[in-house]
Amino acid sequence: MAAQVLQKRDMDALFGVLQARGFRTLAPTVQDGTAMWREVADSAELPWGWRDEQAPGHYRLHQGDAGRCFDLVHGPQSLKNQTFVAEEPLMRVKRVDGELTFESCVPEPVPTALIGVRACDLAALGIQDRVFAEGEHADARFRSRRSSLLLVAVHCTRAQPTCFCASMQTGPEAKGGYDLALTELDDRFLIQVGSNQGASILSELPTESADCRTQERARRAVEACAESQTRGIDRSNLPGALYETDNHPRWQQVAERCLSCANCTMVCPTCFCHRVEETPSLDGEASERTRLWDSCFSSEHSYIHGKNMRPDTKHRYRLWLTHKLASWIDQFGTSGCVGCGRCITWCPVGIDITEEAAALMEKP
Amino acid sequence: MADPYALYPARIVDKSEESPGIYTYRLRLDDDALRERFVFEGGQFNMIYVAGVGEVPISIVSDPEDSHLLEHTIRVVGRVSGAIGNLKEGDVLGLRGPYGKGWPLETSEGKDVVVITGGLGCAPVVGAIEYMFRRRDRYGAIKILHGVKTPNDLLYRERFDEWRKHENTEVLLASDQPGKTWHYHVGVVTELFDEVEIRPDFAVVMMCGPEIMMRMAAQHLEKRGIRHDTMFLSIERNMQCGVGLCGHCQIGPYFACKDGPVMRYDRVAPYLAGGW
Amino acid sequence: MAEQIKRPRLAVFKFASCDGCQLSVLSLEEDLLMLNERVKIAFFPEASSRMLDGPYDVALIEGSVSTPEQIHHLAAIREQCDTLITIGACATSGGLQALRNFADHDAFVQAVYPHPEYIRSLSTSTPISEHVAVDYELWGCPIDKDQLRKVLSDLLAGVVPRIPGVSVCQECKRRQKVCVLVTKGEPCLGPVTRTGCGAICPSMGRACYGCFGPAEPSYPARREHANTEALSRRFRETLHLSAHEAAHRFRFIHSYVSPFKEAGEETGEGET
Amino acid sequence: MTTRNIEVDLMARVEGEGALEVVVDKGEVKDVRLKIFEAPRFFEAFLKGRHYSEVPDIVARICGICPVAYQMSSVHAIESAFGMEVSETVRKLRRLLYCGEWIESHSLHVYMLHAPDFLGLDSGLELARSEPEILRRGLRLKKVGDRILTVLGGRAVHPVSVCIGGFTRLPQTNELRSLLDELHWAREAAKETLAWVAGFEMPDLSPGYTFAALSGNVYPMNEGAITVSRDGTAHDMSCASDGFEGHFKERQAPYSTAMQCLLDEKPYLVGPMARLNLNAASLRPVVREALAEAGVELPLVNPYHAIIARSAEVLQAVDEAIELIEDYEGLGTGPGEPYRPVTPKESVGTAVTEAPRGMLYHRYALDADGRVVEANIVPPTSQNQARMEADLWQMIPSILSLSDEALAAACERVIRCYDPCISCATHFLRLKRVAA
Ligand SMILES: Cc1cc2nc3c(=O)[nH]c(=O)nc-3n(C[C@H](O)[C@H](O)[C@H](O)COP(=O)(O)OP(=O)(O)OC[C@H]3O[C@@H](n4cnc5c(N)ncnc54)[C@H](O)[C@@H]3O)c2cc1C
Ligand code: SF4
Ligand code: SF4
Ligand code: SF4
Questions:
Q1: Are A175 and A154 contained in the same domain?
Q2: What are phi and psi of D375, to 5 degrees?
Q3: Do B134 and B203 fall into the same domain?
Q4: Between residues D194 and B161, which one has the greater pLDDT?
Q5: Which ligand is nearest to the CA of C185?
């Protein structure tokens, strides 16, 4: 279907149609000085007039153009928080008369529409699909949540200095994987269809077909966003080049700054490490197994009895960066980094993956 | 399996002590259908779960041709293994598997096999050795080289004596430190290489032990002309899931759980004992 | 009856402390009743007038060592108990009162008491582990009762307990809390502080003040240290804290344990 | 043998460590010593040089049983030093926080520490066998208090959200509302508690107390004037918190690391009984009804009746908490600041608030950067300490016929009425001189 125009004043129709179809509607909202995803009733709760300011280890909100609701690029959460949730029960174990029973916990799908999904996060979702949803051991929990999502993307028209999606070829234009995609212009949205369900929803909205000027303006806004990006990663020699850096002094240098606190991995939309924790009842009759996000920066991550396979921060940082930019390609046929820049912003000491990658690929 | 974490009750049919702190368990899955379906190869592992405690990866040491009773040899080293050690016949565990890639037992048929093990944790390869002896005529010369730190660390002494009796088989032992009852080699395991003949193009090497030992051994063997792609190493990493989801067991670009635990030396060489 | 005899015997001892960690034992609620069934609470003066002599299977120790008598008392307890667990900051690192370790003790006594001659106390407040062997340490000021429950369940099941040692940040992010360091420039200690509290300070919009002590691996494989140096540098260079202010962040609840101890060294002469 | 030395080496079911020594010679009481051997922790000394913003977290560590009281007295004192007022929302939420602590602390004392004395048990846990439902009720009531503290402050012991000028975060309306179901249950449970304890058989003892508590328009927690009454009804003296040190004087006993505090050289009583007596007029109707139904008349003058006062205050706090929550207008989700900005200045500030065990006085002198120059803290237990000893002097002659063991136990029971918190009582004194 050709692109359509939805006037901003008609935006609540989108919420209405989705809700009528049984979806919970979630969107980024302003909370605690950033954007957090939350269930919202209508467009009034979107971050109208807010813009973010991101830099390494730095995030602030400012007032901007009151007529715009998607100028706030992103907060710490990505789609990962919806599909591979931070903490969830895996199973309940009971002991009855010496027998063990195992009850798997798999969530019932709850139809959920996410409004305002960024290109980088869609790309990241595609990557997590390869990890969790494909292959012999696909994860039932991820799949249940994933299958219940309806995705309304927003092509970015504003980038942060930390963003480098253009260089990773994941954005700022959403490349697919969405049901509907919006481009925000001053008074209207250009709206594109990415799936049959999206088309069917669009048909219920008060839209008109987009004229050439609107399409052109939308295209230019997204292009300008790409051009505004200053960071990037030179991927021409990846994955190979990184495997040659084993003894590069940069690993030690970054380890002296790195806190090993794991924030980068927690906010990264593709990181999938997790561990399983056991919570037995005091009487020993029952136990719950919980899956939690873990991080390759944890000392326990590589622990095997008596030793740590990755004993120092430099080993852990090396595993992380190499995994993101190189080994992921060997493992899953795609980069593990989509260029969202979150790890740069949310690192308490502002370590910058693009800067580190560039330094590592230079001869020491 | 819809849920990769789903566990199945397995009952301890038999428990025997190999030596202090090392036990061999024979487990029987409760579910008949599952038991029938359970097919594995030597060197694969199961995740073994103790209620209220946790789950650990443990190699299957029994023979793939008898999958009704699964044999596991477990050394008590910590939390979960300790809890397994406290269990007795009739107790129920949780089990899922089999996972990972095992020893190249079939492709090694017709070849000489050199088994190099070190330290205490050589259970994963014991199953493979037994497998070959049960099919002794399919293999060429079998040479078992085993190194320990002190004479007291030598486990399975009877098994070594048993194996030694087979035809066309050599068993060589080395201890870093001397001891009164130790009448084998004193020194590191790589020094035993000088005592055995290895035919570069006819031998497959299987190794299990500390990474640093395996790396040294591989470097020695390389000098003796052994090709990298004929050496196989059993890799140990922390594993939470066993199926490539949890990320813990990465070693360079590999997941030890699904690309291993048995891995070809040419692949893992850059990542051994280097903080990967 | 035979069942009763076999119940493990639990004792709770107090040294210099605020009682908050003992209170966490009493706050186990329903689990307190279950615990009371599974163990014999043999010595817990704060909760019961019945004080039975040792030996004890498990002793929980609250508080730091700060008087000469306590050193002897502690040695006696160690002999009486099988498994000794310290509960809380005071017992585990010397606690807030270890601030005295950096000052002139006599001046302190004189400053606080009109009759300093009545006061018998050591010039330092030290962790239990400085005096006797400790089997497990529960961090936190106060401890987290869920951690306590887990450790007790493990011990009752005959399993080696594990106490996680990763950073507060992990929990902070898992709970979808917004980083106060990045969004507000607050000097948060979360990145170098041990997990366990549920990241409640950032949840309450403020910086973590390190009450669970330094993050470090929970397995004895290698005792490495949280990178307090880099965090302190960050406080000074981009959050514009003075050297003194940055040091005070670390010289607080856990002033006497590495690496907070070293990171707290920049304070002015004679001050705490 | 005419001289009897009665000793309780380690008093049980009190917070902190204390001992009791009574010397009786030829049928006459010669000495009564409440010995506090809790190790000194020198809080006032290391407060010096600390930034005002660190004070609430430091002083909370004085006592894990009533950390909120310490936080409250400190923020009020410092706010008064800086001449600042807090918003009405903050004022109410601080009351709510205090309600949480009262409910938690009082329920613990009533059920786990004190009731066993009237039931002939060694510990509250023994109720698990005889009356498990009652024990469950007590633990659940305590948990209601813990939950209020957790919603407002992150955790029950040493909550983290109190700061000078307000809170670091204000709760969302729905977070508070989620407490209401339990609170409604708690209101009934608190009534049952009051009826239950009022039915206990209690010895007669009326030592003729002088009562001291805050009193004002509302039931005191963090507001009201210091008020003294000699009969429990008439207000004989009244002053603001800066008058505290002028009337109440501390001295150190040689056998104790704690200080004793006297009013005109004489012992006086602080705590729930004093509060209840002096504030009968501001009791909530539901409390008045429950007291009447239980046949309790004010003023209360017998130390054993403290358990009744405590139970009445649990009801008072639960009922007020419900009202505070129902009235609460949450701040929505915008990035508004929950505390007022602070401008430090060189100044001195004092405050008294009502800890569960009674008046808690703080005074701070601060420099222009807002760093503490001097601190003085007088906790309730040091105020009650002389009173406890006086009670024993008075009671012991009438029970001399008892065996040593029984006599010791009887003395311990009197002490326990005060819910003494020895961790608090110790290590406070005026900071006279500070190391250079
Ligand atoms: C593929 C594979 C096969 C194995 N086969 C055997 C076997 O046949 N017999 C045997 O005795 N042992 C075997 N191990 C080692 C066994 O898994 C560990 O000894 C066991 O995990 C220790 O757990 P614990 O809780 O007792 O130790 P702790 O020291 O208390 O360890 C705590 C946690 O760390 C992790 N961990 C610790 N040590 C290891 C380790 N060596 N490998 C992986 N994760 C570890 C686990 O998650 C464990 O739960 C194997 C390991 C792997 C990876
Ligand atoms: S590595 Fe960093 S920039 Fe790349 S996807 Fe993860 S968080 Fe985003
Ligand atoms: S607020 Fe503190 S604990 Fe949370 S992520 Fe930021 S630095 Fe870490
Ligand atoms: S966030 Fe830090 S200071 Fe706050 S409770 Fe947790 S560990 Fe303690």
A1: yes
A2: -140, 145
A3: yes
A4: D194
A5: 3
Q: What percent of chain C has pLDDT over 70?
A: 86
CB contact under 8 A, B248 and A301: yes
Whether residue B233 is found in the same domain as residue B163: yes
User: Mean per-residue pLDDT for C28-35?
Assistant: 87
Residues D12, C45 contacting (CB under 8 angstroms):
yes
Note whether A209 and A244 are same-domain residues.
no
Cβ contact B250–A327 (<8 Å)? yes
Domain count, chain A: 2
- Probe residue for ligand 4, chosen from C212, C228, C255 as the CB with the greatest number of ligand atoms within 8 Å: C212
Q: Which ligand is nearest to the CA of C199?
A: 4
The whole-angstrom separation of Cα D348 and Cα D350 is 7
Decide whether any atom of ligand 4 lies within 6 Å of the C199 Cβ. yes
Question: Nearest C-alpha of chain B: how many angstroms from A86?
Answer: 13
Beta strand B231-234 pairing with D358-366: unpaired
- Domain end, chosen from B74, B99, B124, is at B99
Judge if A144 and A266 occupy the same domain: no
Residues near ligand 3 (Cβ within 6 A): A 261, 263, 348; C 168-169, 172-173, 177, 179-181, 188, 190-191, 199, 202, 208
What's the rounded mean pLDDT across residues D90-96? 94
Q: How far is D131 from chain C (nearest CA, A)?
A: 12
C-beta of residue D202 within 8 angstroms of C-beta of residue D118: yes
The response to whether residue A243 sits with its C-beta less than 6 Å from ligand 1 reads: no
Here the CATH number for the domain that contains residue B13 is 2.40.30.10
Q: Please identify, by atom number, the ligand 3 atom nearest to the C-alpha of residue C178.
A: 1
Task: Please state, in angstroms and rounded to a whole number, the distance separating the CA atoms of residues B157 and D10.
Answer: 59
Note whether residue B106 is domain-resident.
no
Residue type, B59: S
Angstrom distance (rounded) from CA C11 to CA B2: 47
The residue among A200, A227, A254 that closes a domain is: A227
CA nearest neighbour of B215 among B149, B141, B275, B154: B275
Domain limits, chain C: 9-157, 168-263
Task: Provide the domain limits for residue A282.
Answer: 240-360
* Cβ neighbours of C118 in D, within 8 Å: 252, 254-257
Q: Is the pLDDT of residue D433 over 70?
A: no
Contact flag B82-C157 (C-beta cutoff 8 Å): no
Q: What pTM value is reported for the model?
A: 0.92
Q: Is residue A234 part of a domain?
A: no
Q: Would you give per-residue pLDDT tens digits along chain B (276 residues)?
A: 479 999 999 999 999 988 888 899 999 999 999 998 899 988 899 999 999 999 999 999 888 888 789 999 999 999 999 999 999 999 999 999 899 999 999 898 889 999 999 877 677 888 889 899 889 889 999 999 888 888 888 877 788 888 888 888 888 888 888 888 888 888 888 888 888 888 888 899 999 988 888 998 999 899 888 999 999 999 999 999 999 999 999 999 999 999 989 999 999 999 998 888
Residue of minimum CA distance from atom 48 in ligand 1: B56
**Mean pLDDT value of segment D204-214:** 91
CB of C212 sitting under 6 A from ligand 4: yes
Q: Are B8 and B30 in contact (CB under 8 A)?
A: yes
Q: Does any domain span residue A235?
A: no
Residues of C in contact with A260 (CB under 8 A): 167, 215, 226-227
As a whole number of angstroms, the distance between CA D252 and CA D429 comes to 9
Select from D348, D375, D382 the least CA-distant residue to D46. D375
As a whole number, mean pLDDT of residues A153-171 equals: 95
Domain C9-157 annotated CATH 3.10.100.10: no
